[in-house]
Amino acid sequence: MGTLDPKGQVGVDEKSLIITATLLMLIVVIPVLVMTFVFAWKYRESNTKSTYLPNWCHSNKIEFWVWGIPCVIILILGTITWRTTHELDPYKPLVSDVKPITIEVVALDWKWLFIYPEQQIATINHIEFPENVPINFKITSDAPMNSFFIPRLGGQIYAMAGMTTLLHLIANEQGTYRGLSANISGEGFSDMKFTATATSQQGFDDWVNKVKASDQYLDKAKYNTLLNKSIADPIQYFSDVEPNLFGQIVHKYMMPGMQDEDHKFILRQE
């Protein structure tokens, strides 16, 4: 239901598209449902007053309406879909005078790792960002394929090992929104959830300082422990992150010969 109560511009545009497409299709669906009952009543066996035309087989007028209306609807839907597909391209950066925030996302079994490369912090199962500031998500997986989804902000996109997908969203209101995995990925899939909080710029700065006060550091050893399967993990904060961690996670599937001996982590050779 979150998609029908959007709190960001991308979600608002997607809701509008859903409603428009549904209304256009109802132009066909509603008359068909009505005519089903009307025809069943009018041409029932006990109705002896109906016109009896045993040799009737064709009507140009009926053919015109039966094929004409759906063709017009398909043409309109096709035009709208073509236009909005380009406007709502998840890889397309949002137009804004405000500098965007980059968040790197890693899908694990069964939790979400978030890395803020500019702030040099990381979290598990929680993100924060200022309202009315574009968010550039860079998404990958170090586990089976998954799907990253914040229903009230915009559409989902897949997270795949050895690949980076992009998603650009924005929150127009302060609040805490539910994030989840939208792709079945094993035993802990249903508990693979996170929270996304939109706050003021000052609130975001205070939160970053709070994270930086954590005594946990996301290095190679700590990351390897995160690779272990776990369910319903609590929120965790990391005050610092090993440089280029996200790039190392992506590239370890591209260059398997460069993995270390436990085959869980790769250090990129400069």
Automatic annotation (TrEMBL):
InterPro entries linked to this entry: CcO_II (IPR045187), CcO_II-like_C (IPR002429), COX_ARM (IPR010514), Cupredoxin (IPR008972), CuRO_UO_II (IPR034227), Cyt_c_oxidase_su2_TM_dom (IPR011759), Cyt_c_oxidase_su2_TM_sf (IPR036257), Cyt_o_ubiquinol_oxidase_su2 (IPR006333)
Domain Cytochrome oxidase subunit II copper A binding: residue ranges: 98-210
Coiled-coil annotated residue ranges, if any: none
Parts of the chain that traverse the membrane: 17-41, 62-82
Bilayer topology term: Multi-pass membrane protein
UniProt keywords, alphabetically: Cell membrane, Electron transport, Lipoprotein, Membrane, Oxidoreductase, Palmitate, Respiratory chain, Signal, Transmembrane, Transmembrane helix, Transport
CDD domains documented for this protein: CuRO_UO_II (cd04212)
Localization, UniProt: Cell membrane
Residues annotated as domain Cytochrome oxidase subunit II transmembrane region profile: 1-92
Similarity-based family: Belongs to the cytochrome c oxidase subunit 2 family.
Name of the protein this chain belongs to: Ubiquinol oxidase subunit 2
Organism: Shewanella surugensis
Encoding gene per record: cyoA
